[in-house]
Amino acid sequence: MSEATARFERRVLVAVDEGEESMYALSWSLRNVIFQNSRDTLILLYVKPPHAVYSPLDSTGRIDDPETPGWLISGYLFSPDISAAIEKYSQEVADCVLEKAKKLCKDLQNVMVETRVESGDPRDVICDMSQKLGADLLIMGSHGYGVVKRAFLGSVSNYCSQNVKCPVLIVKKPKPSAGAGK
Amino acid sequence: MSEATARFERRVLVAVDEGEESMYALSWSLRNVIFQNSRDTLILLYVKPPHAVYSPLDSTGRIDDPETPGWLISGYLFSPDISAAIEKYSQEVADCVLEKAKKLCKDLQNVMVETRVESGDPRDVICDMSQKLGADLLIMGSHGYGVVKRAFLGSVSNYCSQNVKCPVLIVKKPKPSAGAGK
User: What residue range is the signal peptide (chains A, B) (predicted)?
Assistant: First the structure.
């Protein structure tokens, strides 16, 4: 273990999602900020969409018509079966993303790699988790929503860079014409 | 030189200004991202305020009244003496900031440290210089204007994180109550 990196015992939070941008951010960081022989703890965080469309409400939200068993939430009606299917799909996506992220970290030796799955608005969850997990550094891709959603909500990275207390590293995936990043 | 860091030949641009925030960003980065025995090139960039208040305009902007020799720019009138004094003061501030920043880098061994002074809106200049200098990473404090100016213009770091093509690391100085950062 080199002297330069052995002293690191940082808690580095990396927000990952389905996009290539976040995987690029992780791999760039593994080459540039996190070293295989440091003692950092790397926490891979995936944020699932909010439960609002399928979580059960209290009794006031229940639709008790036996012809339409299910839950009315935020104007959407889903049967328990559909709710369960959405939840299952959401968990599978989370597992898949984190598996892909962990594969990128396979060469890390002393670095502890942890994974977290949380639910909610990525902007709030990432900021909250940075604080709760005592992150010394937050790393994320520059995007965290699709193009349309971002137009309404602003970019996740933009929000986080303004609201997170610790240093934030925002990594953009270079455009193909610009060549691969170092 | 350790194997982990010897391979680094990155061009790292650090935007520095009069604020403590940017000096903290630099020193945090020297502990966490830039290593004394790497072969990185560290470019310390200071952006002076725009020349608008004292640069000569073309003849249409000249006030030729011999009683008021000087330049009318953006509604402000400065005599050549005052313009020169402002320019001198501005350069002294730049020199002072860069000197302070270079002192923080004194322990770097193989890292090449360069300084640049540019003039203009820090948001545009930092973005332009990142591209022109082929920066692999931009590092800056989370603020770049005073409180009042920031309220009107938005934060420099916020603008740069959205517009710079390379990865951007934004380092916030912890509040005194939160204790010193690692």
Answer: none
A137 to chain B: which residues are within 8 Å by CB? 32
Interface contact flag, B5 A3, Cβ < 8 Å = no
* Residues A32, B174: C-beta atoms closer than 8 Å: no
Cα-based distances in Å from A121 to A51, A60, A139: 10, 24, 17
Banded pLDDT at B107 (limits 50, 70, 90): confident
For the ranges A60-64, B25-29, B157-161, the lowest mean pLDDT is seen at A60-64
Give the mean pLDDT of A32-37.
83
Within 8 A of B2 by CB-CB distance, chain A residues are 2-5
- Distance (Å, whole) CA A140 – CA A160: 9
Q: Which domains does chain A have, with CATH numbers?
A: 6-51+80-178 (3.40.50.620)
Q: Which of A25, A161, A182 sits opposite B170 (nearest CB)?
A: A161
- Per-residue pLDDT band for B174 (boundaries 50, 70, 90) equals confident
Closest CA to B12 of B3, B2, B35: B35
